[in-house]
Automatic annotation (TrEMBL):
Gene Ontology cellular component annotations, sorted alphabetically: Golgi apparatus; membrane
Source species: Lutzomyia longipalpis
Classification via InterPro entries: Rhomboid-like_sf (IPR035952), TMEM115/Pdh1/Rbl19 (IPR013861)
Protein name as annotated: Protein with signal anchor
Transmembrane intervals: 21-45, 57-75, 82-100, 106-128, 135-157, 177-195, 202-217, 237-255
Amino acid sequence: MDSNQPILMRSRSSVGGKVRGFFQFETSVKVICLIIIFGYFLSYFETVADALIVTPGYFMPPLVQIWTAFTFCFVEKHLWEVLVDIATVALCGKLIEPLWGSLEMMTYFAVTNFGVVILTTTYYLFLYACTKNPLILFEVHIYGLAGYIAAVCVAVHQIMPDHLIARTPIGNFTNRNIPLTLFLVAVFLWLLGLLEGRYPTMFLAGIITSWIYLRFIQRHRNGSRGDYSENFAFVRFFPIVLQPFVSILVNPIYYTCRRLGIIKHTPVPPATSNTLPLSSVSISMGGVDPYDMERRRQIALKALNERLSKATDSSRSKALPKSFPQSTIKSSAPAISINIPTTSSAASTSHESLIKFPEGEQNKNQLP
């Protein structure tokens, strides 16, 4: 019984640490997580769940259940989906909320989920118009945070696009590859019958909605809107070999929206002439938040420090041979001092030299 006490104490301390870690999140993150858990328990009541989730046939006249556009994202019917949703919201609270703030994170949550339900419902209505299958209108249900998971992946791609996750035989796997990879995984699992068809549909809608918001709409603290950097272009979600073909498809849509005034492009200001004094030169990067730049700088410094520390440790281990003693032998007996008078041949003045002996040999070295 006594031998199990350390294990129980460690388990209790780990559980207590996780509970304390949960309460360290911002209020917005905790509220979303608690509502998701509550929505999962409500899913066991079929009548209540049907009143909270989106059904395409009931989302249009004459039965316009408009409130479901704001409640569908909090309902989940599978425990693993609840765990994935909570992990995603927690990741957003740790990585994105310190950079954007609580208000912007909640705005992003609301905008992306509303855009997901609009795009997904429109897709199923279009599918019904093509197939005339009434089951699409009344048997398909839209719920969960699949679209918001995609939105978080897109936000991570915007913040740290070149962060290396793994090295593969076909190239480096970075944050910019996460959205498309997860979408393809969702489609593959749907083909195997392990996921419902609404999951990859909502995931793709989340990618499109979040990219449009971050690219053209999001207002930054410096007063600018959107992120027009080349690294965040839509073609960057795809492999390099596919980017020219994707550009052929998306560029006409982009230019059409610009001509119609739907999208207002903010051009990057021209570079300042280098003939001006250095104190008067200011570099302005359109669509780039200085807080975002500072965060990327901190991430780069952290990675550099880790590499330098690893290189220093490896160089030290290589510099010392394996046979090099790691510690010196110290005598256990304290040393004592004996004053011995000596004479110098060059001078008649006597001097004293200090000789130290171990305490155990004191009697052997006494002078006669």
